[in-house]
Amino acid sequence: MSSDNINENNNNEYYDNAYNANAYNDDTNYSEHSDSDNIDDAIDINDTDNIVDTTYDLIDIIDYENIEYEKEYIIHSNANQSGTRIDKFISDRIPDLSRSYIQKLIKDQYVLINKAPVKSNYKINNLENVSIIFPKPKAIDIKPENIPLNIVYEDSDLLIINKPKGMVVHPAPGHYSGTMVNALMYHCKDELSGINGICRPGIVHRIDKDTTGLLIVCKNDRSHNNIALQLKDHSITRTYNALVHNNIIDNAGTVNKPIARGTVDRKKMAVNPAGKEAVTHYSVLERYSYKNKSYTYIKCNLETGRTHQIRVHMSSINHPLVGDTIYGYNSNRQPFVTEGQMLHAKTIGFIHPSTNKYIEFDSKLPDYFERILNILSATIQ
């Protein structure tokens, strides 16, 4: 898990920047975006479009989560991009990369035009082929830390963790310690799957830093592959509870809208017809009126697991999550101090990789969530 004689200021340059938004929203950037580490299931097993773009579509051209290191990728420019600086062109086409990381790639001659290196102020001409080679990121020494974990279940194959608000799932730029992975390394020692690399041992899916609730952690590669396949097949039960703004009139409904990166803010997600399929089923648990405003307590079942799916979908139907200042109202319009969106991964169920039997786990709402619901419930006549 460690690397000898690591110089954190130099050897980690590629690691720090390459994991920009993915290593945690991946919640994107993390130092560049106020919603640092806020991603729902950012390791989206379904998002596997790692082919080179030939359609000139600026959305999800290359999914950095699936990049192969030391392999040449070619991106084609079109007439509309003529005159665009090379660093901006790459940033638009691979939005998970920070601008500083792109600048370093160019400086180290990993970006080529017609097989020749270019400078960062180079401007794209019509119909040029831009070649990019991603160097292997330097290893970083992730330390085990004695951080308490709320372990709901554990056996030789996996754990179920109830993640608290504010805890980042795995190390990423700006969050090398204090993460759930640091705690897992202390608790499990070397008994964690290694498929997702040294920075994400055991992690098969994740939730936002400010989302609470249940996560599956795998102890070996066999169970990891098994759970990943169930995620890909949409067969895992994932139920979230949320408090949203405004009154939802229907008792139940489905939001079936594709999601992609935003065309204005590339570090946010948005409903987009060119995006990937995203389906959220919701049902109303309770309706409230508080200080002349309406709120609805809902349960959401995920059919897919796109980045920020529930937050984007509910905002798209005029019911943003309470506390979500990224996809919802600004802090002046939030009725409570919540430190992020009121979203809790309450239930998770799946086929156990060894027993082949369905198991399901449920969790209590966090105290702050219960306290706010109690305040709202007191207003019901």
Structure notes:
The protein has helices at 13-18, 86-93, 99-107, 180-188, 221-232, 309-316, 367-377; strands at 72-76, 111-113, 116-117, 129-133, 151-154, 158-163, 212-218, 237-245, 252-256, 259-261, 269-271, 279-290, 293-302, 343-351, 358-362. Helix 2 packs across helix 3. The termini are far apart. Strand 2 (111-113) and strand 3 (116-117) form a beta hairpin. With 381 residues, the protein is α+β, with helices and mostly antiparallel strands. The protein is globular. The strands form 3 sheets. Strands 5, 6, 7, 8, 9, 12, 13, 14 and 15 form a 9-stranded mixed β-sheet that branches. The protein has a 4-stranded antiparallel β-sheet with strand order 1-4-2-3. The chain folds into 2 domains: 13-133, Structural Genomics Hypothetical 15.5 Kd Protein In mrcA-pckA Intergenic Region, Chain A (Roll), CATH 3.10.290; 151-377, 2-Layer Sandwich (Pseudouridine synthase), CATH 3.30.2350.
Oligomer: single chain
Q: CATH architecture of the largest domain, please?
A: 2-Layer Sandwich
Structural class: alpha+beta
Distance between the termini: 57 Å
CATH homologous superfamily title of the largest domain: Pseudouridine synthase
Strand tally, please? Answer: 15
What spatial form do the alpha-carbon principal axes imply? Answer: globular
Could you please say which CATH topology of the largest domain applies here? Pseudouridine synthase
How much helix is in the residues? 10-25%
Strand percentage: 15-25%
Number of helices: 7
Largest sheet: 9 strands, mixed
User: What does the radius of gyration come to?
Assistant: 21 Å
Spans where pLDDT lies below 50 across 5 or more residues: 1-61
CATH classification, class level of the largest domain: Alpha Beta
Average pLDDT figure? 81
Compressed to H and E, one letter per element, the order equals: HEHHEEEEEHEHEEEEEEHEEH
Domain count: 2
